[in-house]
């Protein structure tokens, strides 16, 4: 049993999202921050470490610059996506626009975005649909589990389920990666320095898993390679840092993390890339 657990942990590949939020305040500083990631990523590759897959969620304004000055080929994503395809929506960025600059990931429904723009669940669902329509992997952020089944039921309506099933069929037999990511991010733990306790994280992720299973959507990891072969993966966010990340990664249902504060700190970044 112990050997089995160790073997599973050794091969578990983690998705680690670094959410820069509205930072840093200039392109000059963004380049400096990106350089820290670039060096850490080169070192990681030199060490042959493929334990995790990093994705940087940067302000869209910096995306193109960083993407075209990206010597270590680190993956980049956006922090939000419009719920509409285009038109008279001042200030919005569509998934078509993001796809056209080769953006492959976007956060969807982060609690800070939801709160600031007073987004309802239908809009979050439409953002998710926009991402799917344009081959962007949405990282759906779920902040609280009050009435989770009702909330998830609103996001995963017939159209979304249909899009997921179609995408699964298209991906069949090809190199698989998750079609979407569910990020459990309790607001009470974001930016506080205090991560949620492990059993609560597991309990909440199990609940999400149960819901998705009821819609025939599954997560699965190849026991040998540790690669994700199911339709989605689930991650945790809320005060994750280099001190607690190893412990938290032992949680059975955790396939990765979304980090905010730690993503702006050089020492934290370097330590995490040495995982
Ligand atoms: P935190 O932020 O790591 O600073 O708690 C996480 C997030 O908001 O994604």
Write a structural description.
This protein has 275 residues and is α/β, with parallel strands linked by helices. It has eleven helices and eight strands. The protein has an eight-stranded parallel beta sheet. Helix 2 (27-46) packs parallel to helix 11 (266-273). The protein is globular and about 45 Å long. Mean pLDDT is 91; it is low at 1-10. The structure holds 2-phosphoglycolic acid (PGA). 2-phosphoglycolic acid binds at residues 19, 185, 190-191, 237-240, 258-262.
- Percent helix, as a range, is 40-55%
Strand order of the largest sheet: 3-2-1-8-7-6-5-4
Q: Approximately what portion of the residues adopt beta-strand conformation? A: 5-15%
What is the mean predicted local confidence, pLDDT?
91
Shape: globular
Bound molecules: 2-phosphoglycolic acid
Helix/sheet category:
alpha/beta
Count of alpha/pi helices:
11
Rg from alpha-carbon coordinates: 18 Å
Q: Termini distance?
A: 24 Å
Largest beta-sheet characterization: 8 strands, parallel
Counting copies of identical and different chains, the oligomeric state is single chain
The secondary-structure element order is: HEHEHEHEHHEHHEHEHEH
Q: List unreliable stretches of 5+ residues.
A: 1-10
Based on DSSP secondary structure assignment, what is the total number of beta strands? 8
């Amino acid at each position: 049993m112990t050997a089995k657990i160790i073997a599973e942990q050794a091969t578990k590949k983690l998705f680690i999202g670094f959410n820069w939020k509205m930072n840093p305040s200039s392109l000059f500083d963004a380049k400096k921050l990106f350089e820290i990631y670039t060096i850490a990523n080169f070192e990681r590759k030199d060490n042959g470490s493929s334990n995790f897959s990093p994705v940087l969620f940067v302000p869209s304004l910096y995306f193109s610059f960083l993407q075209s000055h990206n010597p270590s080929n680190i993956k980049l994503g956006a922090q939000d996506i419009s719920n509409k395809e285009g038109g008279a929506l001042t200030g919005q960025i569509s998934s078509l626009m993001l796809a056209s600059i080769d953006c492959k990931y976007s956060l969807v429904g982060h609690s800070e975005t939801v709160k600031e723009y007073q987004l309802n669940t239908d809009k979050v669902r439409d953002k998710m649909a926009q991402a799917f329509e344009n081959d962007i992997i949405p990282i759906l952020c779920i902040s609280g589990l009050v009435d989770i089944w009702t909330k998830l039921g609103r996001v995963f309506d017939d159209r979304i389920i249909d899009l997921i099933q179609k995408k699964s069929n298209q991906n069949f037999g090809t190199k698989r990666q998750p079609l979407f990511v569910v990020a459990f991010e309790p607001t009470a733990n974001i930016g506080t320095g205090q991560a949620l306790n492990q059993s609560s994280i597991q309990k909440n992720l199990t609940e999400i898993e149960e819901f998705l299973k009821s819609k025939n959507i599954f997560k699965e990891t190849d026991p040998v390679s540790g690669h994700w072969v199911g339709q989605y993966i689930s991650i945790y966010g809320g005060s994750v840092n280099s001190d607690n990340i190893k412990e938290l990664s032992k949680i059975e249902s955790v396939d990765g993390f979304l980090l905010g504060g730690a993503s702006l700190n050089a020492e934290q970044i370097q330590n995490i890339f040495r995982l």
